[in-house]
Fold this sequence. Notes:
This protein is mainly α. Helices cover 66% and strands 0% of the residues. It contains six helices and no strands. Helix 3 packs across helix 6.
Amino acid sequence: MRCVLAALVLLAAAMPAAAAPAGSAQNFLERADRLIGKGPLALFDGDYKRLSREGEAAGVSIRLEREAAEREGRPILYCSPKPRAELGNMEFIAALRKIPQADRQRMSLRAAMLLVLQRKYPCRR
């Protein structure tokens, strides 16, 4: 009986408490925070490039959608004064932290990035 109980305790400790789903803004932030904690050694972590590619892909997707909306005369979702919105890595991470955790767990990285861009570059309507 003790062996079974000990095994269950070890199994429960090995599982993350409430792991955010892959692709969620919360998952992205958790991974980014882990890399930030490594300091300069984060550059050698395999997740560094994956995280960079995910962020870049979300940004490109949003930019392409904005450009298509402009061409077609549809309303745009954020109003950057420049053709390409500027959003630094640490600026984005800080803005992600401002989104409530419950919301971050439910939203995709792309949706979170769009929300950050809308807050930074609101459209005057």
